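Changelog note: in this version the structure field was regenerated for every chain. One regenerated record is shown below for reference.
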Amino acid sequence: MKELQKVVAAAYGMHLADQVALVSVPLIAALVFDASPGEIGILVACQSLAQLLGSMPFGLVVDRFASRKVAVGSTLISILGFSGAWLSVVTANLVLFGLTITTAGFGIVLFVLVALSMIPRMVNQNVMAKANSKVEIPRSIMSFAVPLTIGATITSGNSRWVLAAAVLGASWACVVTSQFPNIAPVRSVAGGQLSRIRDGWRFV
């Protein structure tokens, strides 16, 4: 269970960053960019786009590469995305804001997939339920605490620092994931990768 605690610690950082993005994107769009309702809707949809487009191909990545490399990579993607989002607020670039927030979302999706894939290979089956709940607790706590905090404090003047908190959360996760156990990838199964993605889309 000691290694599981590292996954939990990294999850706190990534879910902090994720919730900051989910809550602050429409607020920043309105406060900083004076965005229309349609533009705010597009920005929120961009965040969902990462989940829609990333889940299946990232599932193959998780299967094919060692977990520590994938986990560190996921945090680096999010750091890049959130840093770009911070820069877009400083430069008042709405298009860059949408692109970088989407990029950060891809990192979150990849992290969640690799974290969940590690649990069955880290703990015994008789404690699987407890392990799953431990990894999900950070999401629950951040989903409650972050909206309350941001809603009470965000203004047009301090909005860029809200995104800086997302960068810090992802950076903390990067430090922790570098200490993850290097679990070997799942052995390849028959069939090409494209055919497996196609089968996934057929299922959807």
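Spot check on this record: The mean pLDDT is 87. DSSP finds seven helices and no strands in the chain.
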